[in-house]
Amino acid sequence: MARSIQKLFDLSGKTALITGGSRGLGLQVAHALGEAGAKIMLSARKADELEHAAAELKAAGIAAQWLAADCAKEDETRHLADETLKRLGAIDILVNNAGASWGAPAEEHPVAAWDKVMNLNVRGYFILSQQVANTYMIPNKAGRIINMASIAGLNGNPPGMQTLAYNTSKTAVIGFTRTLAAEWGRYGITVNAICPGFFRTKMAGGLIDMLGEDKMKAAAPLGRLGDDEDLKGLAVLYASDAAKHITGQWMAVDGGVSVVLGAA
Length: 264
Hints:
By secondary structure, this protein is an alpha/beta fold. It has helices spanning 5-9, 24-35, 47-59, 74-88, 111-140, 164-184, 202-211, 213-219, 232-239, 257-261; strands spanning 15-19, 39-44, 64-68, 93-96, 143-148, 189-196, 250-253.
């Protein structure tokens, strides 16, 4: 018998590990999954920011814990998965969101900066997904993996943005998502990506100020930047049984910018 829409979106009894979860888009996703009933494990590099974020979730009635880890480092990434499983007993939902960017002209881009971005934005996603899948999702023949990509992975940028490594990494995340979905579907694991446009986060704030917020709003069909609610619906969809037949897909949450640029 078909379940009601409320039951399909209900995440009660589920657990979610969210990297880069101490602020910005990761914390927004944590609120969304927690409000839908999931228990949350937040991770990022800075313990003080994680403690504050977990307190914010708890104040909203969400069961939340935190664990500091640098997902650019393999040993810390694998430990994050194992310790989360030890504490929560399950990892039903993995949100790969930790990320870094770097601004430089392509001809001057430091190799060390390229490696920093790629190690966190791509390699870290792979290592954590592999560890979570091998230790929990594959044995249990179920799981939801949500990868944070970007509309920067869909198009080239105006010359002034100079974010070659970041754009390349987010293009890779989309390919990673689609390929992993094809391989792990037989285990009951769905793998999907979210491609945000511009949100005023700590990472994007400087770039928005440089390019001009009013100009960026004017370039979007909806005439606005993303806010503290705009990722919540898609995150809960991907994490829930409402999307049990959706895998290997990406969706832009960008006010229509990618439509104007011809990527969607």
